[in-house]
Design goal:
- The chain is an alpha/beta fold and about 300 residues long.
- The chain has a domain at about 5-170 and about 215-240 and about 280-295: NAD(P)-binding Rossmann-like Domain (Rossmann fold, 3-Layer(aba) Sandwich).
- The chain contains ten helices and 13 strands.
- A seven-stranded parallel β-sheet has the order 3-2-1-4-5-6-11, sandwiched between helices. A two-stranded parallel sheet has the order 7-10.
- Helix 1 packs across helix 7.
- The longest helix has 22 residues, at about 90-110.
- The radius of gyration is 18 Å and the shape is globular.
- It binds nicotinamide-adenine-dinucleotide.
- Nicotinamide-adenine-dinucleotide (NAD) binds near residues 8, 14, 32, 55 and 170.
Amino acid sequence: MPCFVVTGGGGFIGSHIVRTLLDRGDSVRVVDDFSTGKRENLAEVEADIDLHVADIRNLEALRPVFEGADYVLHQGAIPSVPRSVQDPISSHEANCTGTLNVLIAARDAGVKRVVQASSSSVYGSNPALPKVETMRPMPISPYAATKLTQEAYASAFYGSFGLETVSLRYFNVFGPRQDPKSQYAAVIPIFCTKLLANQSPTIYGDGEQTRDFTYVANVVQANIKAAEATDGAGGAFNIACGQRLSLNDLLARLCAIMGADIEAIYEPERVGDVKHSLADISAAQAAFGYEPSVDFDEGLRRTAEFFSAGA
Ligand SMILES: NC(=O)c1ccc[n+]([C@@H]2O[C@H](COP(=O)([O-])OP(=O)(O)OC[C@H]3O[C@@H](n4cnc5c(N)ncnc54)[C@H](O)[C@@H]3O)[C@@H](O)[C@H]2O)c1
């Protein structure tokens, strides 16, 4: 039975990865300091995992956890653009120093492959659509700069030490357990909770900005396929659905699913936000057989159901 370490396993995406690995019968170790994630995300699986409450900024804390592991799925990070604009140093420390530690611990433990969470934000102000991995990254937020740095370290560790690494550029992931309450929460959980409370959500800008919203199960599948593949080492790959939707359309679709009739409040655009986002996913398809299996509408329905059940 393969052994996986999931950093950030107490977070939104990490906690979905953990459940899928357990369902497959894999052995799962989690590293999380619960700084942005929550222990209750793991509540009903805690007895089945080996949980280490540890900080990835501390290399020595990682070494014993990585010993004997086959794969590392590195999700741990401070994941927010606006938070990185407010406080670039703590984003840098968790995302860049933390990743360097993960790579060193993985190299020294003889891990077969490290798959890590990068982000579509690395494309930044490059206006071309769809985003293809061969395009020049042009980060416009400190967060995007940390993710590009993570990618550079990952490919450098493949080049210098032969440690197999794959970076996955996630495009706007959404689904159950995504935190709606944080000051830096993402748009879909905020829209769901606002509609349930019969309140108007805020849209920054005119709402015509577009995103390639990606249901979390697709990201889970990408991590596992990328880990177990033989191709792709040293590379970075888009992980998305390959369709885009404006925030205005998103709100309209959510209103239809949730039976609401609510208009947005419009505020000025936020610093660091990109205007449009759409992925070409053919590289991940070719390298490790990635294929989105849950489409946007089905994912939105499952997500709305999750938030409605908790309301
Ligand atoms: N959600 C998205 O749309 C999206 C898009 C692109 C990339 N990503 C990336 O995916 C990964 C997971 O994001 P998420 O949306 O699940 O966010 P999240 O905040 O729910 O998960 C991140 C997890 O990392 C943990 N963490 C943070 N700093 C840590 C540290 N120093 N030591 C140990 N653990 C630490 C947090 O406690 C949390 O559980 C992140 O790397 C993020 O940058 C997410």
